[in-house]
Amino acid sequence: MPSARSFSRHPLPSYFLLLLPLLYSLCLADHLPRTFHTLSDTHLKQITQLSPPQWTSVTSGHLEHLLIPRPSGSENNTLVQQYISSAFSSLGWHEDQTPFTDDTPIGPIKFNNLIYTFDPLAPRKLVLAAHFDSKYFPTYPENQFVGATDSAAPCAFLLDLAEALTPLLKERQRRVTSGQALLLDGLDEEEEAETTLQIIFFDGEEAVKDWTDTDSIYGARHLAETWETTFLPPSHPLSKRRYSPTPTILNTIDVLILLDLLGDSNPRIHSYYRDTDWLFTQMSDVDKRLRQEGLIDVEKGEEGWFVDFKMRKGMIGDDHAPFLERGVSILHVISNPFPKVWHNLADDASALSLPAMRRWNRILRVFTAEYLSLIPTTNTPSQRNDHGPYSRSADELVRYSSI
Ligand SMILES: [Zn+2]
């Protein structure tokens, strides 16, 4: 993560950037706002109890594989990519990779974003993202930096989220494709299934030297540029709904939720963009309901993670910027002020708080389930590695997933 960056350092005038999300949401009137389906207390509890179970230590599970120095282009960076890829492969999600080489202050480096989509044919996507690279330091001991909050923990949250919700997504997909879609609390599952879940792991977020417009967010800049110029085929549902301009992959994104600098105790989370104040408030409400139901452990003094959305803060430069510039709605979930250990060797496992990580896992599970109107039923399996009946033919995948 870079240091805090205000609009004034951006090449575009600040008022123009503030207007962009509004202008874009007017163009995508069929996207926002979405009806947010609030789960009952019983369903809330069921979602928190889905497999995988609560973490038992800050180094258990995924973090065991992520907490290594993993700067872009390094052997460890490739190892982490392989680990994430194998986790999603076992869940049966569609994978896209975007390998490319870019010039950096220390020469050309190979980068690779990893993109996972539950249903690559769905016309709309809720996107959650984090960066998986760690900051590069050339000499010992700084080159042992593992970036626990920056952003190994957020990546682990996303892996946990995919594992927990995949059985629900598959179950709903099975009902829809077999003509057994349910009407749940007035919601038509077939219609709700038009929005799928996509998870992006960005490479090259960190500056190789000092944060500048060209030495930072390598992966996010590459992906936003690529998706802006990748047009959807005429057969895509969004193409049929619009006349001009021809929709691109960017148009399939409802909102991009970027996680960064999380996992330590007592973060302060702010809302940065007016068009997603309502989503920020939903996430804050999820946290509040989980606390009220006693479904998360909250240490004394940690109740106020989410600051009132009206206490808006200036934009922080991060992977969302190139998407924001292209009109994508953004929810930036980042600790502000940054963790005390930021870009310091102390940002290791000892910087992570187990109660805070469990709390994030549960907030994200419930928030995402409610956004996608995913409701656990008595048949919901809790096992991992259940490929289930959901599958797409290779022919179908080629149609919309080229990036
Ligand atoms: Zn960083």
Automatic annotation (TrEMBL):
Signal peptide: 1-29
Superkingdom: Eukaryota
All residue ranges annotated as the Peptidase M28 domain in the record: 113-366
GO biological process: proteolysis
Regions crossing the membrane: none
Entry-linked InterPro entries: M28_QC, Peptidase_M28, QC/QCL
Gene Ontology molecular function: glutaminyl-peptide cyclotransferase activity; peptidase activity; zinc ion binding
EC number of this enzyme: 3.4.-.-
UniProt enzyme class: hydrolase
Keyword terms, alphabetized: Acyltransferase, Hydrolase, Metal-binding, Protease, Signal, Transferase, Zinc
CDD domains per UniProt: M28_QC_like
UniProt family annotation: Belongs to the peptidase M28 family.
Protein name, per record: Peptide hydrolase
